[in-house]
Each structure stands twice: as C-alpha cells, then as structure tokens.
Fold:
Amino acid sequence: MGSRTASKDIITLRGSAAIVSEFFGYSANSILYNRGIYPEESFTKVKKYGLPMLLTQDEGVKSFIAGLTSQLTEWLEAGKLQRVVLVIMSKATSEVLERWNFSIETDAEVVEKGVIKEKSDKEIMREIQAIMRQIASSITYLPCLDEPCVFDVLAYTDKDVAVPFTWIESDAKLIKNPQMVKLHSFDTKIQSGHTGFLQER
Amino acid sequence: MILRTPAQKKRRPDTLLTDHESPVYDRRLVLYEGPAPVTAVDPSDEMVCTYHCRQMVKSDFLVALNNAEKQLAEYETKLAMLNSEFSQSEDERKNYKDRVLSLEQELDASKGREHALQERLLKEVGDSMERYKEQVKRCCELEMQLNKEIESHKNAELSITSANERSRDLEGKLQRLSDSSEREKNILKRQLEHLQDDSKLSSYKIAADLERMKLRAENSEKESELLREQLNDLRIHLDECLREKSGLEHKVVTYAAAPHESTSEDNNLVKHLREQLRNYEAEVQEARKLKSYHVNTELLKEKLLEEKGRRERAETELSKLQEAQLHAQNLELELVSWKSLLDELPDVSAVTDIPKKFAALQNETIQTMLEVGETKAHLKQLEVALELAEDKRQNAEKESSLAKEKAANAVLEVRRLEIMLSSVTEERDKVKKEAIMLSKQKIGNEGGLSTETLVKDMESSLVERENTIKELATNLHEQREVVHHLHDELKLLNEQLSTEKRKVKSLEREGDRLRSEISLLESKLGHGDYSVANTKVLRMVNTLAVDNEAKHTIEALRAELKRTQAKLQAVEELKGQSDATNVIDGGIPEKLAQLKGQIATLEKREERYKAVFAEKISVFRRACCLLFGYKIVMDDQHRPDGIPVTRFTLQSIYAQSDDEKLEFEYESGNTNILGNDYSSQPEISHQIEIFIKKMNSIPAFTANLTIESFNKRTLS
Structure:
C-alpha cells in the first residue's frame, strides 16, 4: 500500500503501483471464477475492497499470479507498463475467445520527479469496487464458455524495457471480429486504469 | 426694381409754406385768379404792389422753376439710376431665374437620385427582408429538426427507461429467483444436515462395526499367529515325526523281514510307536485343523479386506449418492426455475429457445447500448449545431433589426427630403410668383419705391433659397454618406456571415473527422493494436499450461507408482499364499523386479532430494540466524475463515529465556505481528508501537530488539 500519513491521503508512485498490481491480481481471480476457467470449489472467499472476493487456491495459479503481479509492480514503479491483457483461449484449438484489457496511463511527471499526489483511499476503493461489480455482473450478459479454456496474461511495455528471463516476447493474440464493451475506470492521480473486454461477434 | 421715393427736403417753414403754397411745387392746379379787385387802397400802391407781387411771384416762380428744373434733373438722374438699377435688377433677375432653373434642374436630378436611392433602399430592405425570411425559414427548419431530435431523444430515453425497467424487472426476477434458490438452498442445507446426521450415524455404526471387525480381525490375527506358531511347531514336529515314521517304518520293514526276532520289547516299542504315531496323527490332524483354521483366518482376512474395500466403496458411493441426490435436486430446482422462467419469458416455448432468447436479449442490450451511445453523440452534435444555428439566427435577427432600423431611418430621411423638396418647390413657386410680380411691376410701375421693395423681397427670397439649397445639398451629401456607410456595413456583414459559415462548415468537418478518428482509435485500442516502435508485448514463459502438464505427468507417474505398489503387494501376498501350491506365472517376477527397481530408484531420488533440500534449508536457516540474530520457525496454518497463512516464530539468539519469542503472521504479501506474553510486555509493546505501527518497519523493530537484548546480555 502507499505511504500513509495520519490522514491516509498521500499517494506515492510506489503505493500507486502496489494498488494497481493488487487490483489486477484480484481482477484476474474474479475473471477466472466468473468465466468458469477453474472450478468453483478451487476458490475461497476473502474480504477486499468492501466486497467478498474469490481467490484461487490452486498453487500453480496462485504462484503464477503472484509472480506476475510482482513483475507488474516493478514495471509500474518504473512507469514502463502500458497495458495488461488477460486472454482466454480454447484449450483444444488455442483460439482466442476473450480479451480482458487493462489500459494504464502513468503521470510522467511523477515518474521523473517523484512528485507526491493526494487522493482519498476510500474514493480509490470505491472506483475499484465499481469495476469489480461490473466484472461480476458480466456473467449475466456474456455467453457461457462451454469448452475447456485456458488463460494467459500479456503485458504491453515500453520498447526499451529489459525482458526478464521468465518472460518472452509474444504476439498480441488479437480477436478477428471483436465486440468491445467498456467498463469503468479508476484513478490514483498517479496512474489510471481503464478496463474493457472484447469477445468475438 | 425697388422704387425709392427720395427723401423730402426739409425746408424752412416759410419757404415750405411758400413752396407748399406755390402751385408749381405742389403741382396742384391752381386756378389763376385774376387780379383781385382793387379796393379803396391807393391805385399806385396797388400797381406797385402788383408789380412787386408779380416780381415776387416771378422770382418765386423762377426760383421754383429753377428748383423744379433741378429737381427734374435730379429726378432724371435718379430715373437714369433707377433705370440702370432696374436693368441691373433685370439682369440679376435673369441670373436668378437661370439659377432657379438650374436649381430646379438640380432639384429634379436630386429628386431622381433620391428616387433611385429610395428604390435602392427599398430593394435592399426587400433583400434584407427576404434574407430575414430565409433566416426565419432556416430557424423554423432547425426548430423542426430540433423538435424531431428532441422527440427521438425522448423516444431513446423512453426506450432506455423501458430497457431499464425491463432490466429492473429481470433483476427483480433474478432476485426473486436468487431468494427462492437461497430458500431452497436453506431447505437443502437442512436436508443435507439431516442426511449428514444420518450418514454420521451410519458412519458411526459402520465405524463400530469396523472396530468390531477390527477387533475380531486382531483376535483372529493373534489366533492365526498363535496357530501359525503352533503350525510351525507342528510342522517341525510333523517333519520329525515323519522322519521318525520313515525311520520307524524302515525299522518296521527290517523288523518285518526278521519277524522271529521280535520280542515283547519290540511289541511294546511298536505299541509305543503306534501310540506315538496315533498321537502324531492326532497332532497332524490338529495341525491340519490349525492349517485349515489358518487358511480360514487368511480367508477371513481376505474377506475382511474385501469388506473393507466394499465399505469404502459403499462410503464413496454413499457420498456419490448424496452428491447425485443433491445434483438431482439442484437439477430439479433448476428445471422448475427454468420452467417458471419459460412461463415468464415471452416468445419462449422450449428450453432450447432460452439461450437463444438470452443471446438475442444480450445482443439487443449491446446494440441498444451502442445505439444509445451513437444517439447521444448525434444528439450532442445536433445540440452543438443548434447552438450555432441559434447564434446565427440571433445574429441574423440583430442584423435584420439593424437593417430595419436603417431602412426606417432611410425612409424618414426620404420623407424629410420630400418635405424639404416640397418646401423648396413652394419657395420656388413663391419665387416664380414674385418674379412674375416683379415683371408686372416692372411693366406697370417705373417708380422708385415699389421697385425697391420688390428688389428687397427678391433679394431676401434669393438668400432664403440659397440657404435652403445649401441645406439640401448638405442633407444630400449626408444621405449619400449614410447610404454609402450602410452599404459598406451590409457588405461587411455579408462577408462576415460568409466567413463564419465557412468556419462553421470547416469546424463541423473537423469535428466529424476527429470523431471518426476517435472511434477508430478507440476500436484499435480496444482491439489490441499497438505501435511497434513504442511498445512490445511480453508473456511469462512458465505458463500454467506447462506447469499443469508437468503436474499432470507427475500425478500420472505417482498414480502409476501407487498402482504398481498395490500390484506388488498383491503379488507378494499371492506369492506368500501360493508358495505351497507353486502357482507362479513365469513373466511376473521379471516385471516385479523391474517395478521394484523403478520404485527403488524413485525412492532413492526422492530421498536424495529430501536430503539436499533439508541440507540447504538447514544451511539457510543457520545463515539467517547468524546474520540476523533470530531463529525462525515457519509453520503453515489456516485461519478460522479458511484463509491459509504462514506463521513465523522468531527467537533472538541473545534471548535470556525461551519465552522471549515473537510471532508474525504472513498472508499474501502482508506481515502482521501477533500478540503474546512477550510482545505484550511494556518495553516490547512500546517498541512495536513506534517501529511497526508508526513507522511500518518490522526490520527496524527486530534490529532494535537485537541491539537491546545484546546490550542486556553483554552488560549482564
């Protein structure tokens, strides 16, 4: 979490990066649960953002997401991360069925000069809560994924970023005729996250 | 020509009298009266008097004549002067006439120009009125468009409200369904609890039966062991007996060959041996019984194992049955709910239609959302255009009002000019009349006085005419300037209108272009396109697929290992049983040996890994302890809400007692200190407050604690 004074209003770059990466971790878990990528019984409930959030107990997925979020935090602190995409593909055909897009805009001034911004934690939590509710409600209008699916995470970074040894360059895994739905956004005053998803028409 | 009457000479009263009285002067007809009759006055005197009188009269007459001649000369000069003046005045009159004619011509020309100006003004007023009408028409059209858009907006809002109502209804239905499902869940939970209680009872019963069976099995095992021992003893005994028997039989045979040599001792021996044989046979029978018992126990064991297996299968099947029952109940509830949904949803007759209907509804909602977005964008565009049109209309109204005012002013000016013209014509008529009078006067009177007054009048009227003409000229000039100014203003306004129209069109085009660009960019962004020059796409190498595959292979290998171990056990048991019967397959020992070898290698590998890991972890722990001064014990636990947490217990190497331990809890990147007796001590709690709660730094707290305990140790 960001550095806190008694009023809990000051947000640093490090704190903002932690908030955004944590948000992505919980969003990924929520998407995996709601889209039925993993069975329901492999998730447990925890309280986060004032909502009951579901976290996977599968050790592999857990370690995968933990490693992912730590790397995203690093990139966010450097201001090098542009977008994170969670791709859902068919296990049999590797066809991309859904793309959950998390666009990130970073204030360059904060990265260069280390400026501190102020925003209420409650407001940020409220904004994230709205996005989580939207992800949970997407199950009502998205089609069911009848076939077994797998997921992967793509990170859009700046060109000058050094590729860690656990990461490789990849194609963008685009959908041919996408239908886009925009969800809400949230803003820590240092970084802002815009959420949306695409599915095939 | 103004006739002036010369001023009368002032004479003395005498002369005046005489002059007045003189008939010549007065020009009166004086009757000459003869000489008055002479009276008694002296006739000489009368003659002298008359001579004197005649002389006086003559002198007077001469004087008068002279005077008259002088006057006449004067009058003649005056007349000549007057004549010259009259001729001058006539010339002037002519000049004035010419001037009046030219002025009349100019007036006519100015009239014509004014007329033309009026026509032009009227034309311009007409044009401005037409433009105003066009603007009003455009405004009406825009108002109609606005009304249409407002109606479409209202329709869209109505559709949105109806969609919202539908969604609310659906949400209400969903809530109801969820409430009903919750109620049913509660009912099912209660049923499940009942079933669980029943299953618990049955499991307790089965456990009790199991225990009984276990006890029986243990007893039977013990008995079987005892019997085995007895059997072994008996076998040994049997072998001995058999050997003795064979020896004895041999002996008996040898004794049978030499029958005469048998003595009573041999008989006794034989009897003894027979008794022994009988005993041994009895023992053999007992051994056989024991063997059969042993076989029975083994059979019982097998049966026990089978029953255990059956119990386990029964339990699993029970649980499966419970799950199947739950599943069936869930399916029934779902069926009921789907049926109710079918009944509630319109245009749906079968279950297969529901997903289509939902897909159609989803598509409809997505399309309506898109349409709503588009209509909102279109509305905004129209609102902007309407605002612009309203501004234009207001500007046009202002311009038209200005043009109207100008036209009114021009009309007023025209009227004023007309009035002036009429006044000028009146004056011209007056001048004409006066000229006619002058001419009449000239013809009728050649006296001085009347011509003088006429000339004066003419001069004054001429002066007035000149003044009016000057005023008219200045007014004309002003009017021309005003008209020019109006014209220039109109031109400027038209130019401004045209430039602003062009600007508006260009802005509209730019706005459309920008909107299309924005939509394109948004679609590209959403689509996932990116600039290769600035961005690269990365993904993790150790994906879950790879991990999962490895896991699957590991699990498959483990399952195979278990199966081979079970097979091996079964084969070993079979081998133990079939040793006596020697029913052994030829290929199994080789497979068994291979499997055993594999198991041995895997177990060795596992032990090696364990040993290496244990070594490494112990080295790491020792290094951590030596470097940071704390022994760390890690323990995975679960909180009451089921969340897995890792507990770390730290004990400083400088701790003076074993109770001096700190407990921390680690969960998803967060570390919290737990309260215990040691941490609740005032010194430690104070440090916790400062370093952990205020400064949010556990390493600082542990370092400070290490230093304090080191100091305590060294001082003590």
Observations:
- Residues 494 and 500 of chain B are 10 Å apart (CA to CA).
- The first strand of chain B starts at residue 535 and ends at 540.
- The interface with chain A takes residues 174, 359, 362, 365-366, 522-523, 525-530, 533-545, 547-548, 551, 641-644, 696 of chain B (CB under 8 Å).
